[in-house]
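Instructor's aside before we start: the two examples that follow are unrelated to each other. I chose them only because their records fit on one page, so don't look for a connection. First example below.
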Amino acid sequence: MNTTFAKNVKLKKMRKMCFVKRLFVTLFLTLITCTATAQKGSITGTIVDENNFYLPGATVLISSLNKGATTDFDGKFSMLSIPAGTYQIQIAFLGYEDLKQEVTVVENQTTTLFITMKPKSVTLNEVELISYGLSGQAKALNTQKNNINITNVVSTDQIGKFPDANIGDAVKRISGVTMQVDQGEARNIIVRGLSPQLNSVTLNGSRIPSAEGDNRNVQMDLIPSDMIQTIELTKAVTPDMDGDALGGSINLVTATAPQQFRLSSTLGSGISFITNKRILNGSLLIGDRTKDKKLGWMVAASINDTDFGSDNIEAEWTDEFEYYTGVDDVNGDPILEEVPVNPYTKAFETRKYLVQRVRRSFSANLDYQINPNHNLYLKSMYNWRDDRENRYRTSYEMLDAEDMEAGDFTITNGIPSRFPAEIAKETKGGIDNNRNKNRRLEDQRMQNYSLGGKHFLGKVKTDWMVSYAKASEERKNERYAKYETEYTVLNDFSDNKFPMLYAENPADATAFDAFEFDEITEEYQYTEEDDVNFFTHFELPASLFGTSNGTIKLGARGRFKKKSRDNNFFEYDLESAYPTMNLTGLKDLSDDDFLAGDKYNLGGYIDANWLGDLTLVNGESVPSEFLRANFNVTENVWAGYVMTTQNITDKLQTLVGVRVEATDLKATGNQIEDEDDLVGTVTKENAYTNVLPGVHFKYAPNNNTVFRLAWTNTLARPNYVDLIPTIDIVSSDEEIFIGNPNLKATTSMNFDLIGEYYFKSVGLLSGGLFYKKINDFVYQYQAETTSDALGNGTTGYRVYQPLNGDDATILGAEFAFQRQLDFLPGFAKNFSFYLNYTFLTSKATGIRNEDGEERDDLDLPNTAPNLLNASLGYANKFFNARFSANFSDAYIDEIGGNSFEDRYYDQQLFLDFNIGISLSKKLSLYGELKNITNQPLRYYQSVRSRTQQAEFYGQRLTFGLKYDLY
């Protein structure tokens, strides 16, 4: 590190510390001033429904003072600085009867209320209609309606209406959201077309760390849906929220202690049709509160054990073809002849995955009401997922040009239809013990512990939280066995969506004595991320427009992150013992019902049980497999904000504020030569500060209509692996991989406009527009070197390095409708309809191809132009059913060196169905069928007809019992 750079980093740190010190001094002086002038009383309360479940989003109003409040996710509200006296408060909640209650406020005291509301029926043409199953929808819509900023809220009851085992599958139902899947389950969230790493995910307001080694993605499939009470997606963040939420911020809220004893449980089973093996699931939630209502507790546990798999085909396409003329030049190098060809499959694979996924989750929450002014809480969650996997892979790859001569191949209609190839049979597994069970075991864990409090200090309302979170992924004793041979293959190019290479002589495919030993390996991987967080907020009454409902809020946050990856890789020479594949244990998958198509015959493989039983000793380390992957990163973020919420009129509300985030980064990576030679480690530091102002307007011309307008600024920090200052020269592949610690954070200026109409019978009609102006987005640059500047003999090598693009824009529109169709006659009034649609268009500039020329034909990666969710449901007192659809359009996923190499994520349409039957008030049956149409995960290269990967999962059926005592 040069002296100037070090001085700049030190200067930035000093400025940041001065900012933080000034911020805390301001907070302290504000707190002292406000508590010293406290002369009035306060009101706090809890609002519940007829079953003592909390009602979030209820409005509480003292009309004589023009002062109001809204309940939080725990049904609690507070109003400070109320003059002593007797008032009538009005409580409203969508779908429930309005309520009025008298309350007396005493000077310098806090009055505590407990309010129970009752659902209302709707009368049409003098006929009373009763809405079934709408309580969860009402809770979500009330919260969404009363938020000043633009949000989407989903409650636990709504989650239960869909067949979603993990929280990722539940989130994909939200407007503007699509998910990237892993083994058929939603894993990575894309909000408004922005990549998973550009969105933030929190648990009860505390950031969830990521166990992914090369990005910031939070694995949404790690958390069971039945452990979450509410999902809140914020699309226009406020200054009191983390600023690194370019697309949006998802907050997962766990259940809190109930007002009375509650016991809830599920027990179920099912079948995964791709393997015809069982599914087991169960959950338990139990909670209560002491007689004096001060101490509440709740514990919950969940388990889901699924034995499933996937059938996969993959292809690599090229538009170049060369062969050896049989003549060498004066230097002894082969002279190659180039033949013009149409795009064709150069390499092809079939893959069979067999997976057991066991997802466990545990949660324990406590809260203690010291007195009406002081409350403490402790929330914890531990998620543990085991993924056991076997993979059986056959790969075909055309021989290098210098190994093919004129008589070795055939070209038909401009496409190589016959050519010599290298064929490999490979099995992935693990050791034979109680944990691995002869499979690769991926052990992922995420834990989060939060301690916080909410306090009234005179006129000041304050809350704070400190938390510790950790995510880890460990893969021990991951084994691979690979044998290879060569023979001539035929290229079936009759349908590019289902490409295939296969043996010209069928006997070659089963001649296992011709498959020679290539490698047996065992690897170890461990990634972990530790997060320590704290925040504190102070809020006090402050009216700037002559109304009584304004506030000023300010606060600070610190987030301290450490992330590391420590991998290793060993190779074992067993060629003398097992020189050919026929001498190993074999497993025949010829009769397997391969979902990609009957024409694909998998054949025989090395048995994973044989691989697991091997005693592997004296392995040789292979640094090229892990040196570039290993790193250490520390990232510290200090933030402070100030904002004010004001009622300009009784119908117009505004929020104005600014947030400042200061980031310190230190990254250490390896400097490598010739793949295996560790030259040393390289450490780089970086520091930067972002100022993020924001303005929100909310206009409510009547009780059922809301318009919102927002201008916000957000950022996204680069992926850790991109920041690692590593240099890896892979001479065998003529490739160079370079990190970039000088990457800038991606920033975005956002504009949002939305209108919402809330039906009295519980429902929503909304439409809106949004625009994002993004600067310094990160993409993977590919080019060829023109000199030996990166090392001797590296001219012509392909270089890969993450770079900042110039800018990008996203313009989108959103539409949502949900309602019970209670205006229909007879039984039809029990139908309900749910629909949301998002349209996106984007443009990216500053992306350069392999020749250094700027490309002008690209959308911003991961921006799906069309997203749609729809469901039709029916519910009466004893029965409910729902048919749901989730569609996401195709989008560019990875930018290649040119347009021919670009990779696209294909469109997806998932269809699901679920039913529920009430056996009694407490006991019910449920059934769920997922992925009815066997929708595959599919990537294509350049054009949609050119399959690069297609992975099929089949259907899953689950059924069981639910018991709820309250």
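Example two begins here.
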Amino acid sequence: MDPWAAQACPPALGRCTPLFCPGTSVPASPSLTASPLPRLLASFSLQEYRRQPWRSLTALLAIALGVALGFAVHVINQSALDEFSRAVRSVNGQPDLEFRGMRASLPQAIYPLIALRPEVQHAAPWIEGTVQIDSPPSTGGAAGQAPHAPPEPLSLHLLGGDALQSAPLAPALQPRLFAGQDRLQLFAPDAVFLNPAALQALGLDEASAPGALLPVRVHTHAVTLRVAGTVAAGGAPLAVMDIGAAQDLLGQDGQIQRVDVLLRSGTDRSAFTATLRALPGWPAQVLVQQPGGEQQRAAEMSRAYRVNLTVLALVALFTGAFLVFSVLALSVARRAPQLALLAVLGLTPAQRMRLVLWEAALLGVAGSAAGIALGTGLAWLALRMLGGDLGGGYFAGGQPPLLWSAPAAATFFALGLAATVAGAWWPARTARALPPAATLKGLGDVVQAPARAWTGLALVAASALLASVPPIGGIPLAAYGAVGLMLLGGMALLPWLLERVLGGLQRLWPATLRQPLSMLALERARRMRASASVAVGGVVASLSLAVALTVMVTSFRGSMLDWLDAVLPSPLYLRAAGGSSKSDAALLPPTLLQAVRDLPGVERAQPMRATSLWLDPQRPAISLLLRPLHGPQAQQLPWVGAAPAQPVPAGMVAIYVSEAVATLYGVQAGQPWPLLDRAFSTGLADGSAAGADSPATAPMAGAAETHFFIAGIWRDYIRQFGAVAMDWGDYQQLTGDARMSELSLWPAAGEDQATLQPRIEAALARLSGGQAPPLEFTSSAALRQRSLEIFDRSFAVTYWLQAVAIGIGLFGIAASFSAQVLARRKEFGLLTHLGLTRRQILTVVAGEGAAWTAMGALAGTLLGLGVAAILVHVVNPQSFHWTMELRLPAGRLLALACAVVLAGTLTAWWAGRQATGEDAVLAVKEDW
């Protein structure tokens, strides 16, 4: 045994052990060589938790909040997606193949070509549409109406099918007659069958539903239907009726929307599809979809929104990790003499590091478990109160049951634990590197490694490289990695930045060196780079995220305002009540346009319409927007770059695609688009004639084929999966369909909505034979205001996250400065003995805080601008397929930076005031 170690052995122990005699080589018993960490956690660490419970509780709550937000968003989205998938399976059944048209409908003549094939066991045709219910249903009750009639008009999805063919393919859509009705009522022209959601929406129950009369409106026609039974399909409100009756009601004689096919056993789907496509006259616009395609498209439509929302929710977890860092850094600084004493007594540096990491792990386990429980409660509450939609509009109108996932809970639990341990890594390294003798004397670590920039620059360069990587599976995973590397690189550059900037400041203003107090503050701030990095690291991370979110939201909002100015050129708009800009639910008669133009007080009126095009069975449908785009009164689109000026080749039709179409379908301006040619191609001439009210498939007179030319690309901030704009006259010439869904109006001088509305309603009543549908009038200012309200509501979570990030950053400043100042009590005592007053010491401390937080604010702002550039120019286009201009809200950014500097200065002053409150003589006496 080392004689010096023998002299250091505590007599009460009776013998030396490695724990208390680090120089000994005498083997000890297994009980004494066991790790001391469990006992230290149960005594030493637990005592710290009890002494400072609020700090530990704050860190625990930060981790719990981050885990809860991320897990709640995941559970809500998965519950909504699962409910949507079950509803789709219930409505669509499980066919082997599904045939659809690229446009609204297919000629009915296609059905026998499919159904009569020997490979087909069952084939069921379907037709779909939307009807408006403007008044409550009439029942046999005392009041003559449903007992719980809906207060507002209802848009009801209508599905027409063949009850004799649909049962094997979609049993949930099989009509079930009420008791006592004849089976032939299945095919009655006014009989309709409602699912449970429709019954609830209409206020009908088991007693009032049989025989209830539904006053429905299809476009401008009013019809009364009779509730003859129910269907078992779940999901959104749905009505089912016989396909022939539905064709008459929707005005689509000879048209169907889709054909579901169940093949015989052993039939090869690809070979069967190829055989059909080889038939003479087979329409090129027919698409073939495999089972599950609807669910896949719904998941793809909402995937980018769900992923980005989850990432935003995890920002709270990221900032929570910095709060853990600040709390543990303060804890290590407060307990530095105790840790040093443990080191003298034999606790190795690795054991000290593991002790701090285990303390963090205990916080992480408790915080993550609380976060999973809190997230489950938040998800349940949100599903009950808000349904499954979180602002994106993908799953609106439903109230899905909660779908709890153990793997997802384990994943978010692990994320919370990993974030906590990551936040504790630097304090744990500080505990490991403590010099025992110097720490026991109160000198701390005075050795500073030279500041090097290559690590930070390498991380920033790697971030730039990752930002150029294309999305993976439609998700900007590399861009998210670029954001993380950018933040890490900025944090690594902090010591170098502090040394260079503060050193340059002293060279520019040498007068600061002649002032003792300013010299002390700036020199310590410059030379104690590692301490400064710890002190301002949290505020740099939180401020950079706040700056990035502020710039991103400001850029998007400003671009949205410019876009609204371009797409809302007229002061007033009208459409049929219950109509939508996304569908043909409520079309107005073609004669209304000229009737409105002839009215006094109308300077100009232009038609508009929106319908759907389904060009790829693996992608969601895109929108076809129709409006006047040529001529002296052409509407302008928000072009990407300059307005298109290239000529359209002779014999081709000009179209203008949105950025999303250009990205997803790989097209560009100045080239033809054969895929759209297919959508407007003709076939099966014997069945392609359109009905009287729906000439959507009538070909252009004298033309066998139509060819389209992409004449320009424009921005669209609503339709994530793309839109195609076409001139109103070109579409009318192609299809012969002049019906419109909206009218844009320019009132004459001195006229407004109040004077024009009764005139237009009277004109429509004359055209409709006295049965005019109700109209909705909206000003462009109201539409703009409503759009901005929706925008602000959708981005409310980002505003809240900015507040959380700043709050955690400021708490981190307080904890870090408290840790730094508490470790310098003896230094303050020495300065007092040298003649500095308490006020002068506080001035030095406040000056250090101002210098450090000013550098932190500068670094956080620059870092935030870099992150914002990635979010605006990389994450946003890769997620939603549209671009926007980067806008810098200088006033808000300056206010953020000034608030951080002021808070940091006041926090440093307050921490110094606490530390200098003790008697200076006693503080210095501790060294002796």
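The mean pLDDT is 79.
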